[in-house]
Design brief:
The complex is a heterodimer of chains A (113) and B (111). Chain A has 113 residues and is mostly beta strands. Helices cover 0% and strands 50% of the residues of chain A. Chain A has strands spanning 4-7, 10-13, 19-25, 31-37, 43-51, 54-57, 64-66, 76-78, 87-94, 103-104, 108-112. In chain A, the strands form 2 sheets. In chain A, strands 2, 4, 5, 6, 9, 10 and 11 form a 7-stranded mixed β-sheet that branches. In chain A, strands 1-3-8-7 form a 4-stranded antiparallel β-sheet, with no helix packed on it. Chain B has 111 residues and is mostly beta strands. In chain B, strands 2, 4, 5, 9, 10 and 11 form a 6-stranded mixed β-sheet that branches. In chain B, strands 1-3-8-7-6 form a 5-stranded antiparallel β-sheet, with no helix packed on it. Classes of the chains: A mainly beta (113), B mainly beta (111).
């Protein structure tokens, strides 16, 4: 089955701890994305990567970090510097180019207390 | 400007009704406008998409109407069903790989 997997589905952390969210895809897509979703806010882009070993900041990158060492993997680290980390995090991938669909994973709900 | 403004925030219709969700964009470089459907606790999935060189696109019960001069586009759902109850997002994409999303519309279709 081709697709995007995100793990875990639910994640709980104490304030002040860094946490890494996993995203893996077997669609052979070059581009990968991380979004944050809050109620009533839509999807906001955190980071994206169009190719291995390269990534760019999105609209709300502060307090987050990423790496792209392999084509199929794009982990997101939520650092202790992120002021409001509790949210639903979505990973997506696509073939770079005009009008190509972004495929989304099932998401990880992170709760920080 | 990169914004995509979506309305209404929420919408309730009866089964068989035709909900309409509207979006407006500012960036004239946008050349791809997808609509995504998201069920609670799931990731969004592409529903239908349109390019600005056509004024309307239909896929099953879902239709996008596009008005390039007004920089507006809308989603119509014909013969809506309770299973269509979900949150719908419009988006725009230009030369970069980034999609700019509207804030979403929560649709409830009552039986």
């Amino acid at each position: 089955d081709g697709g995007i997997t995100q793990s875990p589905k639910y994640l709980f952390r104490k304030e002040g701890q860094n946490v890494t969210l996993s995203c893996e895809q077997n669609l052979n897509h070059d581009a990968m994305y991380w979004y944050r979703q809050d109620p009533g806010q839509g999807l906001r882009l955190i980071y994206y990567s169009q190719i291995v070993n390269d990534f760019q900041k999105g609209d709300i990158a502060e307090g987050y970090s990423v790496s792209r060492e392999k084509k199929e993997s794009f982990p997101l680290t939520v650092t202790s510097a992120q002021k409001n980390p509790t949210a639903f995090y979505l990973c997506a991938s696509s073939i770079p180019g005009q009008g190509t669909e972004q495929y989304f994973g099932p998401g990880t709900r992170l709760t920080v207390t | 400007q990169q914004q995509v403004k979506q309305s209404p925030q929420s919408l309730i219709v009866q089964k068989g009704g035709i909900p309409i969700i509207n979006c407006a964009y500012e960036n004239t470089a946008f050349d791809y406008f997808p609509w995504y459907q998201q069920f609670p606790g799931k990731g969004p999935a592409l529903l239908i998409a349109i390019r600005p060189d056509v004024s309307e696109k239909k896929e099953g019960r879902f239709t996008i109407s596009f008005n390039k001069s007004a920089k507006q586009f809308s989603l119509h759902i014909m013969d809506s069903q309770p299973g269509d109850s979900a949150t719908y997002f419009c988006a725009g994409k230009g030369g970069s790989e980034k999609l700019v999303f509207g804030k979403g519309t929560k649709l409830t279709v009552n039986p």
